[in-house]
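ESCALATION

Customer reports they have been waiting on this structure for their group meeting. Please prioritize. Original submission:
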Amino acid sequence: MALRDPREECLDLEERGQQQLERLQSVLNRAFKNVPFYRNRFQEFSVDQSRIERLEDLATVPFTERVHFSENYPYGLFAVPLRDVVRIHTAPGIYLQPTVSGYTKHDLVVWRELVARSLVAAGLSSVDILQIDLDAGLANWGREYKDGAELIEASVIPLTLLHPEKQLMILRDYRTSTLVTTASAARQLVQGMYRSSLNPNALALKTLILVGEPPDDSVRAQLEEQLHVKTWVHYGLSDVPGPALAFECEVRNGLHVSEDHFFAEVIDSTSGVPVPEGEEGELVLTTLTTRAFPLIRFRTGDRVRLIPGSCPCGRTLRRIHWLHQRTDELMVIRGVKVHQRHALMVMERVLGFVPERQQFFIRRSGMRDYLEIWLQVEERLFSDEIKQMEKVAQRLGMELEQELGVTVRMRFKEAGSFEFSRLEPIRDE
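Update from on-call: job pushed to the front of the queue and completed.
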């Protein structure tokens, strides 16, 4: 299947605005008609979707937040009958219920083209061999990158959860030219090369696509120097709807948002009011072409800045600068979003209670990030049913890893070990 006309990325601003408005009106009508959640929300906030006549009018529509995914679990936000859904994805939510998203055949075609578009912008073609190395929490992205790469007829080594040494062996022996991974996983790969005394010149790798987390400029420069590659950044949502909805072009000055499929706003996270172009705020996205799982003004929690002006590459898709700070309580570990509330609910399910004090840390061991949780030692942990703290920690860790999709280490600490009175993620470098 051929890619859609690349001129879609280069429409003049008037054409782009008209295209977005028509698609926005369509998705609002579809959501009101087919999704009770949106119909009730529109009525609650006195929104008449038929009166959205300008893109600016979207600011009158209420936000969709991650808590709404749990409240409408599993299929309450679907806008089509289940018989029309050909793929169902799940991802960790903020409660025990996962986030469930669905895709029609049309939706999958769109996502395949979006990923292919982002790969072409990074210079990939049919002569490339693409390897995907992502954690289990981003397994859905692995499928999307495989499909997108196959659309441009590149050779693909699909996502397989392997030990880093095995990934390095495949990278070397299979002559991989492009690697899709997170910045932290790429740094771990470099450490593995050093341990094995592998010269980067022995690799065919030339392109490193970093996803899941915004890398520092210093980290990018270091990876490019150590691996002898060019790095590119893609932005997506690990819960919904997928990867590469914003991507870097050859200029590599901000990420182009695929505005033909998403309408992007940047708001003040406290007031909810859109901020002027160029100012930092929270990214809010509305899907324009999604059929099964439309999102109306979804608050991503990602902090960005809209870059004013045109891009020398010729694309008229607006660009964002993706910032490290978040506007919510989510922690990002190797690209996977983890909510502390979710972790606490898993603890309550396993132990029957939530320990009185907890503290969350993002740790790094051998360039690999993981979640470390401290729990305060208390008498309830020594009941007849629970006698050995080591077994408790092991069981809790296994349950949390399965639920959250990241590596978890549990530590039991005396009350005096806690430095903070609230949950606070800390990174050890």
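Sent to customer with the following note: Residues 420-429 have pLDDT under 50 and may be disordered.
Escalation resolved.
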